[in-house]
Amino acid sequence: METSSKQLRIGLAGLGNVGSGVYKNLLRNRDILLERTGVHLQVAKIAVRDPDRKRDVEVPPEMLTADWQELISDPQIDIIVELIGEGEEAFALITAALKAGKAVVTGNKAVLAKHGKQLVELSEQQNTPLYCEAAVAGGIPIIKAVREALIGNRIDSIYGIINGTSNYILTRMTTAGISFSDALQEAREKGFAEADPTLDINGWDAGHKAIILGWISYGRWLKPEEISVAGIENVSSEDVAFANSLGYEIKLLGVIRQGKDDERIEVRVAPSLIPRTHILSSVDGVFNAVAVHGNVVGETLFYGSGAGQDATSSAVISDLADAAENLMNDVGCTGFVPHGDYGEALPVEETLSQYYLRLSVVDEPGVLAQISSITGQNGIGILSVIQPEPKEPSEYIPLVLLLHDAPYGTVRSALEAVLALSSVGSEHTLLRVETLER
Amino acid sequence: METSSKQLRIGLAGLGNVGSGVYKNLLRNRDILLERTGVHLQVAKIAVRDPDRKRDVEVPPEMLTADWQELISDPQIDIIVELIGEGEEAFALITAALKAGKAVVTGNKAVLAKHGKQLVELSEQQNTPLYCEAAVAGGIPIIKAVREALIGNRIDSIYGIINGTSNYILTRMTTAGISFSDALQEAREKGFAEADPTLDINGWDAGHKAIILGWISYGRWLKPEEISVAGIENVSSEDVAFANSLGYEIKLLGVIRQGKDDERIEVRVAPSLIPRTHILSSVDGVFNAVAVHGNVVGETLFYGSGAGQDATSSAVISDLADAAENLMNDVGCTGFVPHGDYGEALPVEETLSQYYLRLSVVDEPGVLAQISSITGQNGIGILSVIQPEPKEPSEYIPLVLLLHDAPYGTVRSALEAVLALSSVGSEHTLLRVETLER
Q1: What CATH architecture does domain A142-305 belong to?
Q2: Region label for A130, one of left (φ > 0), alpha (ψ between -120 and 50) or beta (otherwise)
Q3: Within an 8 Å CB–CB cutoff, is residue B149 touching chain A?
Q4: pTM score of the predicted model
Q5: Which residues of A touch B335 (CB under 8 A)?
Q6: N or C: which end of chain A has fewer CB within 10 A?
C-alpha cells in the first residue's frame, strides 16, 4: 500500500491520566487509524516531569525526557500533544511549538480560557494549526460539531452540562435525596472528583469550557472577568426537592448565547432549573451533554463522557487525525477558520432568565403582599408561588416563588429590598430557571 | 480580503422540500459561510422536473432547467447537490457527475442503500468526493461524527431512532394512549407523515439509513436482503402499556453492531423495548437520536431533527463546506477514507437480544408450565412473567414474558411450538428488548 510508509511523529507532553490514555489507545487501535488516515501516527518522544516515576502504561524508557524543549527542537517531530495540565508552562510550550511550525493538539481548557486569543492569533500567523477538541466535554466532539457540522448555522444558543463531577453530585442529591457534602464524599470515593475538586465545585472548570464555546460560536474570547460563574456548593437538598416538585431538575448549566436583537454575547455558568420535558434534564451522573440551537438546524444535543482517560483520548486522537490530514495535504491551518467576532460581552446584570427564589418568611398574613409589591415595582412578574406546609413549627417557613424573565441586576436589587423586610429571614436561594426554548 | 473573490458554483438537482431549504439557507447565512469557508458558495443552476411550477422559494427563472445533464456538462459548475429523491435517475445523475469530476453532495438514502458500493468505488476511482450527511438522521451530523470525530474508535454498536414519523406515532401511543391508526392520522394532520408513509411505517426508511451507518462503521455495504427490517404497524396500545409498566419505552430502533468475538456485522430495524433508564428512551416526538458506542470513547449520543427542510439543509451545507475545503486545497477525495471492511453479515436468525413476548392464553392451571417447558428445551431463559388481570371475562387472557438473550431463530421456532399448544391463542406479539449495554 502506497500510504503505509507515511508516518507522522508525535511529541507527547504529559503522561498523566489523559496522556497515558492517548499513548495506550493510539497503540490499541493503530490498525484502524492507519487504515482510516493513511498515516502511521507514532509517539516518538514523551516529556514528563519525572522520567523515573512508575506509571500505569509501559513506555520505552528511551522515549522519555524531562525537558519538553526536546520535543520542540527535534526536527523529526511533526505534532505536539500538550497534556501537562494547567499553568504557564503549558502556555510557553504551546507558544514554542507553534513558533517552531509544529501543529499542536491540546486538552488544556485553563490555558485556552486565559491565553486563547494570543494562541489562536499565533497559530494563524504561523499558518500552523492548533486543535482543542479534548478541552471541552471530553469525548463529546462538540468543537467539531459546532465549527464543521453546524458551519451553515448562526448559533442561537448553547446550553451545556459540562462538568461531570457537579452533575454526579446533583444527580445523587436528586435521586438519593442526600446532601451536597454526602454526595461530594461519594463522588470522591468513586473517583468522580479530583483530590482537589475546587474548580469543579465552584463552577470554573465549566467556566473555562464556556469561554472556549463562546469563542467557537461567536469568535470572541471573553475574559474570565467578563463572564459570570457560580458553582453548586450552595445548592441544598431542599431546593432540589422543591425544583423536582415543580417539574424541574437542577443542573450546573453553561449558557452561551446571543440575543436576536441585542447582539451582545452572554457566557455564564450557574446551577439552574431546567424543565423535565427537555432531554437535557435526562443527562445524569458523570455524563456531559451540550444542547446547541442553530438558526438552520434547530435543536441538537451531543452527549457522552465529559472526562476520563479513554473518552478524552478519543478527542485527542480525532484532532491528531485532522492534523495528519492537514499535514499530508500540506494545507497549513485548517480550512475552518474561527467563526467571526460577533459582539461584545453582555454584562451579567443585563442577562435575562426566569428565576427560582426560595425565601424564609414569618408565617403571618400580608407577607406575600409586601414581597409582590417590591417585585411589581421592579417590573418583575411572578409566575407562581408555593408555600409548602412547614415540617415543624418554626419562626420562619419557606416560600418559593417562580419569577418571570427579568434582568439579573433588577432581580438582585429587588431581592435586597425583599430581604430587608422584617417579615423575611436572611436564609434564601436565588437560582436561574432556563426554559431552553431557543 | 484575498479569499473573497473565490467562488464555487453549485448545480442543484431538485427543488423540492430539502432543495428549497438548501437554496434558501445558503442565501440566508451567506455572510457567515463566506467568512468561515473563505468561499462564495453560489447556486448557479437548478434542475427541476417542471421549470414553470410555482414554488415556495423565489428563484431567478433563468437559473432553472428541466435537464439535469446541463448541470453535468456545464464546465463552470464545481459541485452537484442531488436532491431529486428516490429512483434510478438519481443514480444516473450521481454517476454522471462523478465521471465528470464534479464533487457530489446527496441526501438520497434509498439510492445509497441500493447502489452505495458502486458509487463509493466510482468516487474513489475518480478521486472525486461524494458526501451524504443529509442521508441519515437529517440535521444530526452522524456521518461526520462516526467518520471523523470517532475516527480513533472501533464502533462497538450504534442504536438509532432514525425515523421521525415512527417516533412521533410511538410517542403519541405512549403519552396519549391512542391507537396506531389514530396516531398515524394525527401525524398526517401535523405534516409529520408523508402522503404515502409506507417506507416510514414499514421500517424501510430506517433500513436504508441503517445500511449507510453499517457502511460508515464497518466498511461494508450490506444488501437490503441481508438485513432484517420490521416496522411499527403491528405495535398495539396494549403492548405499549405493558412495556411502560415494565420500565421500558417502545421505539423503532436501528441496530448496527459487531460482536466482540463473532466479527460478523448485524444491521437490523425493529420496534424494540428500551429501558427507561437510558437517555435514548427520552427521545420523543419527531426527533431522532443515534447512540454510538466506541471502544475508546464509550457511550455517546447525537440528537436533533431527523427530517424537515431546514434541519436537512444544515447537513447539506456542512457537506458543501467540506467539499469547498477539499476543492480549494485541491486534495481530491476527502482524507477520511471509508473505514475498512470488517466482516460478513450476521444472519438475523443468529442475532441475539432479549425479547418481549405477549401471548393470549386460556386461563387455566398448567399453561405456564407447558410454555416454559418449550422455552427451556430451546435453551431460552425466562426473565419475568406478568399475567395482568383481564379487564373483562374472555376466552383468552394476556400473558407477558420477558425472555433472556437468545438467537432470534431459536426464539421464532420456540414461539411456533408455543402457538401450537391448544391452550395458547393465535394472537401474540414478539418484540426485541435491547438493553443498550454496549
Answers
A1: 2-Layer Sandwich (3.30)
A2: beta
A3: yes
A4: 0.95
A5: 37-38, 324-325, 328-329
A6: N
